[in-house]
Amino acid sequence: MRLLNDRASDVIKKDMILLQTKFQMKDEVLHALVQKAGEVGLISDETLFLNAVLNREAEVPTAIGYQIAIPHGKSEVVKTPFIGFLQTEEEFIWTKGHEEQVKLVFLIGIPAENENNIHLKFISQLSKKLLDEEFRNQLIEEKNQEKVFKLLRSINVVS
User: Fold this and answer.
1) Rounded to an integer, what distance in angstroms lies between the CA atom of residue 67 and that of residue 75?
2) What is the tens place of the pLDDT at every residue in 41-99?
3) Does residue 23 have a pLDDT over 50?
4) Are 137 and 68 contacting, i.e. CB atoms less than 8 angstroms apart?
5) Which residue from 134, 40, 128 is spatially nearest to 80, judged by alpha carbons?
6) Which among 70, 65, 131, 73 has a CA at the least distance from the CA of 98?
7) First vs last Cα of the chain: how many Å apart?
8) In 10 A of CB 125, how many CB atoms?
9) Contact status, residue 42 vs residue 80, Cβ threshold 8 Å
């Protein structure tokens, strides 16, 4: 497994940033992000990875407030740790029976052999960054992929 540096830029790929999507359901969002991860070559099997994400989601829904969900899956089909980002035009209920509305989704892919716990570090740092209302609003409103990429790269994975 390759060594990771301490910045989100190592795991966030510009190709994994999807903006202004019209999705209104969690399954559509997850399918789109997983399909993109397959196209980019970050995973070797889309179905197995999607199942890992859905199984994790079934344990505890990953909507965290602030219109954000951070679904993640740990699987041997993940070639390298990655973070995908999807922004929707309209917010929607992430999980039926829960009230959390979501507009920003961060999909985290973790190799089965994950010694660095990159997902826990990123979730921790992202949560801190999302306390900044200006940062959240930029992610919600920005329509330029390059600008969103730069914003996300500013998140330090290691504190």
Assistant:
1) 27
2) 999 999 999 999 999 999 999 998 889 999 999 999 999 889 999 999 999 999 988 88
3) yes
4) no
5) 40
6) 65
7) 22
8) 18
9) yes
Length of the chain: 159
Higher pLDDT, 123 or 57: 57
Question: Over pLDDT 90: what percentage of the chain?
Answer: 63
Structure tokens of 31? 């399918």
- CA gap 105, 107 in Å, rounded: 6
Phi-psi label, residue 117: left if phi above 0, alpha if psi -120 to 50, beta otherwise: left
Residue 79 CB neighbours (<10 A): 15
79's tokens: 């070639």
